[in-house]
């Protein structure tokens, strides 16, 4: 497992515990290591959207990007 995946897994665990600022940091670190990590990008957008970050056009853009949420990430969506 590469480092990006480790940070992604940490972000998921933190999200499930409701620790969204810490999860955000973990997802950002995963994306620094692997900018193409689509699951980390999706989960980061979910946290931003549901926490109200990115009000306005960015929020609409983030919502539009959620159409690509994978089944494994829908559980996170329900928890948010």
% residues in beta strands = under 5%
Number of helices: 5
Q: Supply Rg.
A: 12 Å
The biggest sheet amounts to: none
Taken in chain order, the helices and strands follow as HHHHH
Into which percent range does the helicity of residues fall?
Answer: over 70%
Tally of separate domains: 1
- The overall pLDDT, averaged over residues, is 79
* CATH topology heading: Serine Threonine Protein Phosphatase 5, Tetratricopeptide repeat
CATH architecture: Alpha Horseshoe
By secondary-structure content and strand pairing, the structural class works out as: mainly alpha
What would the principal axes of the Cα set say about the shape?
Answer: globular
| End-to-end separation | 27 Å
Number of strands: 0
- Uncertain runs are none
CATH class categorisation: Mainly Alpha
Walk me through this protein's architecture.
- The structure is a single chain.
- By secondary structure, the chain is mainly α.
- It has one domain: Serine Threonine Protein Phosphatase 5, Tetratricopeptide repeat.
- The chain has 5 helices and no strands.
- Helix 1 runs parallel beside helix 3 and helix 2 runs antiparallel to helix 3.
- The radius of gyration is 12 Å and the shape is globular.
- The protein starts with a helix and ends with a helix.
What is the gist of this entry?
75% of the residues lie in helices and 0% in strands. The chain contains 5 helices and no strands.
């Amino acid at each position: 497992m590469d480092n990006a995946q480790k940070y992604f897994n940490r972000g998921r665990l933190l999200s499930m515990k409701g620790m969204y600022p810490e999860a955000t940091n973990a997802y950002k670190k995963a994306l620094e290591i692997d900018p193409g990590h689509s699951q980390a990008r999706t989960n980061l957008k979910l946290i931003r959207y549901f926490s109200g970050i990115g009000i306005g056009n960015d929020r609409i853009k983030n919502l539009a990007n959620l159409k690509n949420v994978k089944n494994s990430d829908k559980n996170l969506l329900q928890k948010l």
